[in-house]
Specification:
By secondary structure, the protein is mainly α. Helix content is about 85%, strand content about 5%.
Amino acid sequence: MTQGADDNSVVGQRIQEKLHFYVIALTFTVLGLSIQTSTFGHSLLADLVELIAWLSLLGSGLIGLWRVEGTPHLYDLYALRSTYDTRAQGLRKVESQDVRSVTSLEDGLEHPIGEALHNAVASVSIIDEQLKPWQNTLKARYRWQRGLFVAGFILLVVSRAFLPASTIVDGVRAFLAARGA
């Protein structure tokens, strides 16, 4: 990648990290405000829906924290993969210049270039195998976090709108009954 692409990637990553924290903060803020402003006793159904909304928002927030907690491990694996990939690229370049052996940084010994290149490529493959489950896990956590947040928010709106909606419906019924009589 070029320097400009690397800079853009870093900027994109930082924006994404800020968004993750913003969504988690928003989730707990909505949960806290809904708990503080709740009123129960008007309707059993509305009360039940509100409690389910709280559980959904709480689940979303906790899963979001759990996802953020796992993210540094993923970035560590990406960094390690990049190190071995860069090493393999360097060894290929050196191999093309008819160099037959290289000194290992790990043990300080001379190793054939083919062996060193094979080890670097194998390390990239091993790390790729470790990355896949982590990527899938974090994606699944994100889907659950997002789904629970949306469900919790919708359920909260429904529970809060239930009393005004039923009052309007009762008013319309009374109006229609008075007109018909």
